[in-house]
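Ticket 4471: requesting a sanity check on a complex prediction with 4'-deoxy-4'-aminopyridoxal-5'-phosphate. Repro inputs:
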Amino acid sequence: MYRDEGGATPIMRCIKEAERRLVASQTSKGYLGAEGDAEFTTLLANMVFGDALAGSPRLTGVQTPGGTGALRLGAELLARSQDKPEIWIGTPTWPNHAPIFQEAGLSVRVHPFFDDATGQVDFGSMVEALGEAKRGDILLLHGCCHNPTGAGLEPDQWRELVAFIAQRGLVPFVDLAYQGLGDGLDADAAFTRALISSCPDTLIAYSCDKNFGLYRERVGALWVNAANAAETSIIRQNLLVLARSLWSMPPDHGAAVTRMVLSDPELAQLWRAELTEMRERINGLRSQLAASHPRLAPIAAQRGMFAMLPLGPGDVETLRTRNGIYMASSGRINIAGLTHGNMDAFASAITPFLDRAQSSPSIVV
Ligand code: PMP
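Returned structure tokens:
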């Protein structure tokens, strides 16, 4: 989760104000239905996909309980496809990805993604491994701000990957969980938009839990952009049937306040300003940490909340017992967990481990 300079995960001011208005104006807690808050999904789609897709009959979306719910709903839909596609995921990735797809009944294939030595995407190995993917197979991609590595494709690489996916007939499934926390709202959606415009079918799982700071409210959406309006309509009916048996209908509160923020120009402007503040804090911390040691230099160009430090599990254990510094044994840290105040102490504590012969960090799969 995002943390501010004081170590808190605050409620955004735009959300507090929307909640105040919601409490004052809401007159019923009646059920909404399996699609959730339809206006929320539409307003969010306009922001995520831009004007090009607004009102497109090829696009359909439903509100889901968080990005996790969106991934699971998409997985359930794909698991029922007659072609029995395999889903390809990069290593490392968010540890919940593989279980979500496996529990839905899909078989998961892995491809290399992150190169520990350069701190960048191992694009050559990734594309080479994907050479084995069959037409109709699914490719899970992080839309921006890769969790856990922060590594992203260069614009020329993502253009090449989009062309590769379209030419091989793969189906992209984009996990967009951190829009606005990398380089900005439009920049962070650019890869997703390019995939949609080049591929006949695309799935997009979205989380509002980080960029609206709504974590426990479980706010997300799943969209499918299908080949034509007729297919989209069939997909929508299937999504509603699946959602009905998964959670019947999603929780209302977080989506309702997000809708209020997006539909009110003043609150929307405040949200953008607060999001910019979070992004700039994260990227400022990235630059500061990257400058502290040559081996951390790639962190400056990486994006989002996470980074994998080149530390082994033994180093992490020593830092915990000797310095009271806590991180995952993989070396994964939450950049926002650092502060400008404790950065120097943190950098000095990890420097001796970075100065040693290069260790190979363990991989989170
Ligand atoms: N995808 C990625 C890459 C994530 O990091 C997370 C949350 N850590 C999610 C999806 C799930 O988001 P949510 O909390 O909205 O379910």
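Notes from triage: The CA atoms of residues 34 and 245 lie 9 Å apart. Leaving this open until the requester confirms.
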